Amino acid sequence: MNLLRWQRPELASWPTFGGLSTLRNEIDRLFEAPLSELAHGSHFLSGSAPALDVFEDKDNFVVKAELPGMKKEDIDVSLHDGTLSISGERKSDKKWEDAEVYRAERFFGRFQRTVALPSAVDAAKIKAQYKDGVLTITLPKAEEAKPKQIDVQVS
Amino acid sequence: MQTTVENQTTNARPVREEYVAPNVNIFETPEGYVLQAEMPGVTKDGLEIMLEGTEITIVGRRTPESVSGEPLFRERSRADYRRVFELDPAIDTEKVSAKIEQGILTVTLPKSEKVKPRKITVD
User: Fold this and answer.
1) What is the CATH number of the domain that holds B49?
2) In whole angstroms, how far apart are CA A153 and each of A149, A150?
């Protein structure tokens, strides 16, 4: 599996003009995300799929997804065949249904993202925590997938 | 033979503070305005809201995250959030309040009493 080490590209700073900055963020995201097979989203530029970071240390994979303003019962995390799937529905606040809308930039509706993990994880030990609008999923690596030191015998 | 190696981790350019603009929803009711801004990763301690003249500036500083390991894939912005809005003069700036929950900042900007629609009783 082709795994690219992440490198932050240098981009010239753009001035921020109110509503155009959302477009700028989307374009930044388009250029900064490496085109790897690792993570797939439902829509690239619509801003509907949550932004993801994936980290790896010797014992775990950690996936962080930005999902502000959700209730944890509306978030689904599942693992199938070594692929992590994060999906759910972002629901709008009924409270403001009748108010006059000046701006509506927030996305509401169903979303899904999948992450193909590079090696096996122990499904029973996966933990997911939702705090400050960030979903953090910790996936401990399966024992056989952990790096092991092999002693070299000289005879 | 002389070889030169370019160190890719140093920048000649000075680092400038960069912000990203949070997505917002703004509603108006007869009582006032409600502004919701999406700032995942920000807590009460990271918020700075300033009212100056006819403008409101909202800044959300992300709580630094300690993650062990190497990044394999990175889409989240690491910049802090910032956005500026023009205020409707009808807003009573003394009564503006804000709270943040699960990364959503909600700013409530009530209109001043004298601007609200009032029924006048006729004697």
Assistant:
1) 2.60.40.790
2) 13, 9
So where are chain A's domains? 37-93+105-144
Domain assignment present for B37: yes
Q: Which one of A2, A36, A53 would you mutate to disrupt binding with B, by most B Cβ within 10 Å of its Cβ?
A: A53
pLDDT digits (tens, 9 = 90+) for B32-79: 999 999 999 999 999 999 999 889 999 999 998 887 889 998 999 889
Domains of chain B: total:
1
Q: Read off the pLDDT of residues A41-99 as tens digits, 9 standing for 90 and up.
A: 544 444 578 999 999 998 999 999 999 999 999 999 999 988 999 999 999 888 888 89
Instruction: Please name which of B21, B78, B57, B26 lies closest in space to residue A66, comparing C-alpha atoms.
Output: B78
| Domain of B94, in residue numbers | 28-64+76-113
A109/B contact by beta carbon, under 8 A: no
CB–CB contact A25 B21 (8 Å)? yes
Q: Is the ipTM of this complex over 0.85?
A: no
pTM over 0.80? The answer is no
Say yes or no for a CB contact (<8 Å) between A62 and B29.
no
What's the gap in Å between the CA of B123 and the closest CA on chain A?
33
Cβ A133–B23 below 8 Å, yes or no? no
- Within-domain flag for B13: no
What does the alpha-carbon distance between residue A144 and residue A114 come to, in Å, rounded to a whole number?
23
Compute CA distances B16 → A13, A98, B61, B110, whole Å. Answer: 9, 42, 15, 36
Task: Please indicate whether, in this complex, the C-beta atoms of B68 and A57 are within 8 angstroms of each other.
Answer: yes
The rounded radius of gyration (Å) of the Cα atoms in chain B is 22
Domain A37-93+105-144 of CATH type 3.40.50.720: no
CB contact under 8 A, A133 and B74: no
